[in-house]
Amino acid sequence: MATSRQHRVAKATGIAPPPPAPRAPSEAQPKPSIFKTAARKLARLVGPVARSEFYWQSQAINQPFEALDPQQKLPRPPNVGPNQTIQSAPIFLGMARKLYRDDAKVRKGLRSIAGKVVGKGPLPCPRFPELQEIIRAWLPQADARGRDSWAGLLKRIYLTERVDGELVIRLRRRFMSDGLVLPLQLQLLETDHLPVTWTWPIGAKGPNRIVQAIELDALDRPAAYWLYRIHPHDWVMQATDPQNASQAMIPERIPASEILHFANPLRASSLRADSTIIPMLVTAHNLNSWDQAEQARKLVGALFAGYIKRLPGEQGGNVIGEEEDPDAVDRAIKQLVLEPGILAELPAGMDIEWSNPPDTGQSFEPYTRWKHMYLASCCDVSYEDFTGDWRGANDRTWRASEVQTRTFVDGERDRIERQVLQPLYRALVKLAIEMGLWAPPPGTPPHHIFDCRWTWPGSKNPNEYQEWNAFALAVQNGFMSRDEAIEATGGDPVEVDRRNAEGLTRAKKFGLNYATYLPPAGAPAAGMGHNGGPALDDDEETGPGGATGQAAPATNPFQTMIEQLVEKALMDRLAPLVANAGGDQQVPADADGASE
After folding, report:
1. Can you list the alpha helix ranges (DSSP code H) found in 340-421?
2. pTM for the whole structure
3. Is the N end or the C end of the chain the one with fewer CB atoms within 10 Å?
4. Measured between alpha carbons, how far is 281 from 310 in angstroms, rounded to an integer?
């Protein structure tokens, strides 16, 4: 056989290499045995596998993290930019909205967390009572369509943001002739009004750049929003104004001072936000598909109550009516409608075998329970609130769940205040000053003008006795102020004091001696003493200028009442025993017949 050198020489000179010399018969190789052939094939089969295993192990040793080990076979999605994932928003929006429409559990879970976050709606508590009265009078008029109350409007805002991922709120000025307290209303615009494809470089639409319909200044702050006048997918509204429909499909520039962008982006550098229910789309779809398949299987099993079969050794007869009309059976089969529990008349030689469809099995309920837990976590509610299944829950588990829910609710309320309520309050204050309805007192610091505290509804507690007792003890011992206790229950301290003053005046006018306002002579009023504690004793001496001495020890009125009731019950029990102690009369029996 020609060597590689001979091949190179032949290629350079053009002369073919000499043919190989014929092999002598004595040099013929012996035929390998069957064992050597099997070993050679096994080596060819196992060799690559062993080499690949060694390769993966060597690669795993060189990787700094276990997740990068090729043996783990973890998917490696592309590392996209913070504003790139929003390009798929139109597809996810349709899926998320359909899930919210069709799945009652998802809708109940989102409405449950929205009710806990918003409740009856927050109330503004500014530093100035006159300004508070003006703004609170405007709150019921906030909806541009006049459909929702203040609480209903905020709940709709929060639900839309959870389903769509974001919401645009436009501050619309109104005419004075509209009869509003302040000529301003809120118009809710879905995220579709903000096109994700409207992106322009600097100089194309002005001095600023536009990223996904949000115009940014030199400091990357929103300077304007480019919005469609009409919803791009609402063909009904576009058909009502065909002349301006084409113009409505061109985004219009709206200054950022007129826009409230309510969103919670997943990444720090993102300008837009995705739907919060995207993680549950696949799980909810698979769970519903399995549920429907299980229902279809049971339905088919219920339709067939039994099967007709011929007895062994029996030829059987014709179906009734087949002798007169041979086609009657075919027509009957075509007209047959399956209904639950169908039975037919059997001809001779036939028997019935009852249908026994398989049961669901023991894995159905645990599987659906775990999947519902996952869906509940996507809605940020507990499993019990999501499904209404309170089996196995007790008071302690409910309290632990409520602590977690209240922590999440506090964070969501803070986000609503930052993105919606505080900017809205500033706009309302500026409008009230502009219209001359209110003017800040002379010498008021500028930051006090726009300083506002929002009071949110308190969370309901089924054991209100323990909750109010805890607040009373905390106030009496100085752990919290009375105003903080009122705000924790969702009240306004100023409003509570005003109503108490009105109630006290009204009680005196009608001669009503309520223990809250007019306690009996010699009885201290609970919570009306020093530092919000119990009232001082009559014998307590006061120093110069009305300074008091040591306050009386704190007493719990509820504990005193319970002690009095227990003492009265014991006296009623002991009275018959004392009366019959010196005689031979039998002690009267109880209601159940047992004597004392």
Report:
1. 364-378, 383-387, 395-416
2. 0.71
3. N
4. 51
The residue to which tokens 């019950």 are assigned: 569
256 and 194 Cβ atoms separated by less than 8 Å: no
Q: Which two tokens stand for residue 465?
A: 């006795």
Structure-token match 């798929």, residue found: 88
Angle, CA of 298, 302 and 305, to the nearest 5° = 145
Report the distance separating Cα 553 and Cα 476, nearest Å.
10
| Residue 157 CB coordination number (10 Å) | 22
Q: Give the CA-trace dihedral at 95, 101, 103, 107, to 10 degrees.
A: 110
Tell me the pLDDT of the chain (596 aa) as tens digits: 556 666 666 666 666 666 666 655 555 556 667 766 776 766 666 555 554 554 445 555 566 777 777 777 788 888 888 998 888 888 899 999 999 999 999 999 999 999 999 999 999 999 999 999 999 999 999 999 999 999 999 999 999 999 999 999 999 999 999 999 999 999 999 999 999 999 999 989 889 999 999 999 999 999 999 999 989 888 888 778 777 777 778 899 999 999 999 999 999 999 999 999 999 999 999 999 888 888 887 887 777 666 666 666 655 555 555 555 666 656 655 555 667 766 666 666 666 666 676 676 778 888 899 999 999 999 999 999 999 898 888 888 888 888 899 999 999 999 999 999 999 999 999 999 999 999 999 999 989 999 999 999 987 777 788 888 888 999 999 999 999 999 888 888 888 999 999 998 998 888 888 877 766 555 554 444 444 444 444 444 444 444 444 444 455 565 676 666 667 666 666 666 555 555 444 444 444 444 33
CB-neighbour burial class of residue 382 (10 A; exposed 0-12, middle 13-18, buried 19+)? buried
Nearest Cα to Cα of residue 99 among 318, 229, 283: 283
Q: Measure the CA–CA gap between 11 and 17, rounded to whole angstroms.
A: 9
Q: What is the DSSP string of 177-233?
A: GG--SSSEEEEEE-GGGS-TT--B-TTTSSSSEEETTEEE-TTS-EEEEEE-SS-TT
What distance lies between CA 367 and its chain's CA centroid? 21
Contacts of 249 by beta carbon, 8 Å cutoff, 6+ apart: 228, 230, 232
Q: How far apart are the first and last CA of the chain?
A: 123
Inter-axis angle of helices 281-303 and 89-102, nearest 10: 40
Q: What is the DSSP string of 441-489?
A: PTT--HHHHT-EEEEPPPPP-S-HHHHHHHHHHHHHTTSS-HHHHHHHT
Distance separating alpha carbons of residues 310 and 317, to the nearest angstrom: 10
Angle, to 10 degrees, between the axis of helix 150-164 and the axis of helix 104-118? Answer: 130
Six-digit token string for 415? 């986000």
Cα 177 off chain centre by: 41
Got the DSSP string for 83-106? TTGGGGHHHHHHHHHHHHHH-HHH
Q: Quote the Cα angle for 456-441-493, to 5°.
A: 25
Question: 511: helix, coil or strand?
Answer: coil
